[in-house]
UniProtKB/TrEMBL annotation:
This is Putative peroxidase. Belongs to the chloroperoxidase family. It comes from the Eukaryota. It comes from Aspergillus homomorphus (strain CBS 101889). One of its GO terms (molecular function) is metal ion binding. Residues 1-30 are annotated as: Disordered. Keywords: Heme, Iron, Metal-binding, Oxidoreductase, Peroxidase. The keyword Oxidoreductase applies. Transmembrane segments: none annotated.
Amino acid sequence: MVRSKENTDTNTTTDTDTFRPAAAGDARSPCPVLNSLANHNRLPHDGRNITAPQLRSALGSIGLGADLSALLVWRAFTIHNDDAEFGPHGSIGGLRDAEDVTADGVPVLHLDKVGRPHAIEHDVSVTRQDRALGDPIALDPALYEQFLASTPHRFGVPELGRYRKVRYAEQAKANPDLKFERREHYIACGELAVLRCLFGEGVFKGIPKEYLEALFGEERLPLKEGWRPRTWVKAFLPEAAAVILAISRYAWPF
């Protein structure tokens, strides 16, 4: 079940890493990991005016390698353009508007821009509705419960991939305006691959269900559940690419 955020307001994960849920007016994204980083003050708690160094540091703090962090930050800080045909190369995936800068002209990112259309947000989310059917940003409790119930204990590559395929079949029937092609497929597999790399317990054990309950249900890093970030060997691009391809093998719907 979705845990009550009101009951966790005073919880602390370590002496120096206090968890505080989003307040009214705070900007949040469709990504539970980014929201968790803001709720732990590893990003600005209000979710606004995040600088590139802040985002790189926060991603590194949970075990993401420098190459992957740099790639994700570069994409996030690209200026967005909705024009797929005539916009600047690569701009469709960008998240910022040109005016998103500090008073000193430093580019910043607001978390509510992460869910903007025609960027990285996509249909067939694991826990969010398609844009044509509902709210693509906030957690959908029914989808969340369905996701957790899809496997008994741990979420490894096969479980994650097969569930992505299930979600595609559901939305192909439910959403006549579905937009989910190869680009969206690999973005979606990439999201799960990052979760697997950062929160999986070793090579073969997968992600414990309680870790996902914390991340998705409370938007909290699962420190209380025993998770610790990778420090000695972080998750670099070659590992993530291999996991993306492995998940895609099970999830491929076309």
